[in-house]
Amino acid sequence: MAEATKTKANVPLMSVEAQHFEIQKELEQGFKKILKASDFILGPAVKEFEAAFAQFVGAKHCIGVSNGTDAISLALLAAGVKAGDEVVVPGFSFVASATAVAAIGAVPVFADINPKTYTIDEKSMEKAISKKTMAVIPVHLFGHPADMSSVMEVATKKKLAVIEDCAQAHGSFYESKHVGTFGTAGIFSFYPSKNLGAIGDAGAIVTDNDKVAEMVRILRNQGQRVKYHSEYLGYNHRLDSLQAMVLTIKMRKLTLWNNQRREAARMYAQGLKGLPLQLPFEAQDCTHVYHLYVIKTKRRDELQKFLNENGISTGVYYPVPMHLHKCFDYLKNKKGSLPVSEESCKTVLALPMFPGIGVGQVNYVCSKIKEFFR
Ligand SMILES: *Cc1c(COP(=O)(O)O)cnc(C)c1O
Q1: What would the pLDDT profile of 75-117 be if each residue is shown by its tens digit?
Q2: How confident is the model over 174-185, as pLDDT tens digits?
Q3: How far apart are CA 213 and CA 226, in angstroms?
Q4: How far apart are the first and last CA of the chain?
Q5: Does the CB atom of residue 191 touch ligand 1 within 6 A?
Q6: Atom 2 of ligand 1 has which residue's CA nearest to it?
């Protein structure tokens, strides 16, 4: 935890600048190395990162790709999902969890979420499964694991592939196992503001399945197993060496940075105790890594305005439930069909949360929220 700051106002919602100061020298050395080798695409730096991240997660394979969205599409294709197949996705997530399904011609079918953890509700998931369903995408939203034992039980019974969306959950554990290692594959985004972020777009797929890993490697690189011999209709969804180098260096700090987030969350929980708010929930045997610190209140818009007037930035993740995005009009989803997802969109508010957030900043936010409810 950084020292208490004297600054009273201007608490940002998130900040990645502080991270880079800590590792500036290492990054600069890394840049020099990459420039010298000039092996920019799928070079040794990519292999090095893939090996390190696979070990961190505890998966047999890690395949670096262009971003988290492409990672979902590739994982689905490698798991055998085809155009016209249905894939069950939670109704409350970042839109990419579902657009990546539509991108390969498959059909996203939405399930509701658990109101405490904001992750997929297994009963609603089971109801959403039809004869056409081939896969489910549990999302470990905000850094809290989905209930993987229930998800796996239903998926195994129905013989479905499970692609875990871990884009917000680097370093999050469920019953002592890292998220992304329960299903067929796990996908990660390294968008700069994620718990582990690149300095541009990047993503990865982790899996223990040799066939899935091989297929992802082929599909990310123009469907080629052998150069200039394309066996499959593939893509350019590769990870570049520069991003891989940055990720290898930043990965060494991930646990420390996640612990700083957890410490800030502990202070928020103490400071906001007793107020008419729903605080984030950490289920037993789960490690919440607080990608976002999300509270819930019916007076959300008023509170956000009040905090903004006091120099505190907050965010609404997410204002629109997945099934009601305009881009999914063609699916003819109905308003009212996923009540918990819809209600969450109206009541959630993310408070400032980032590694290195000051004790003074957290206390200031808590004091202003108390003042609001007085
Ligand atoms: C960020 C994110 C993605 C997409 O990752 P990109 O790297 O931006 O493509 C997918 N799912 C969730 C839940 C995310 O937060």
Answers
A1: 999 999 999 999 999 999 999 999 999 999 999 999 999 999 9
A2: 999 999 999 999
A3: 16
A4: 29
A5: yes
A6: 167
